[in-house]
Design a protein that fits this description.
This protein is an alpha+beta fold and 177 residues long. It contains 6 helices and 8 strands. Helices cover 35% and strands 21% of the residues. It has a 4-stranded antiparallel beta sheet. A hairpin with a 7-residue loop joins strand 6 and strand 7.
């Protein structure tokens, strides 16, 4: 994927995005931009911090973008409730403490993850780690660095949300555009 083009396209979309008042869940705020990517040395330090080499396409993504420049908003579908704010596309290494819960879930619900991966033709025995990337979306990291499926998981409710990183970001951020 051309990450520079992805960055430019999504930032153009977000310049005029509107918050939908009747929607539950976090929404990207108008004017959101991507943080600058990491240097090669920063990517290598982050790999060392997590203890495994990253998929090639994730390394490319990190060198171009690294999380949103602002928090997303959840209006909770009700104007009577106060909105909530949270970073949804994680910035590393800053957000590692904020994603500890999701990393813990990958351990607790590993059997459900393995069943989903196997059902989609991936070998669960070749998974060497997980990286939370957006909200409850997790990149499954394999020994084969060309693989990069993205999972959506809430507890043991796990699905493949993208067969690879490019498929995932297109589905999550560019759909219907």
């Amino acid at each position: 994927m051309d990450w520079e083009e992805f960055k430019a396209r999504t930032e153009r979309m977000w310049r005029s995005s509107r918050i939908l008042s009747d929607v539950w869940g976090y929404q990207i705020v108008a004017g959101t931009q991507w943080n600058a990517g990491m240097t090669e040395a920063e990517v290598e330090r982050f790999e060392q911090q997590l203890g495994f080499p990253f998929p090639f396409d994730y390394r490319d993504l990190l060198r171009c973008i690294n999380g949103f420049d602002r928090e997303c908003i959840d209006v909770r579908g009700d104007p009577q409730l106060p909105p909530r704010y949270s970073r949804q596309f994680y910035k590393y290494p800053d957000d590692l403490p904020n994603v500890a819960w999701l990393l813990a879930d990958t351990i607790e619900y590993r059997q459900a993850i393995d069943e989903v991966l196997e059902g989609e033709g991936f070998s669960p025995n070749d998974v060497i780690g997980f990286i939370p990337i957006y909200s409850h979306r997790v990149l499954a990291v394999f020994r084969d660095r060309k693989l990069s499926p993205v999972l959506s998981m809430v507890g043991n409710d796990v699905i493949i949300y993208g067969r690879d990183l490019a498929d995932y970001v297109s589905h999550e951020f560019i759909r219907d555009q």
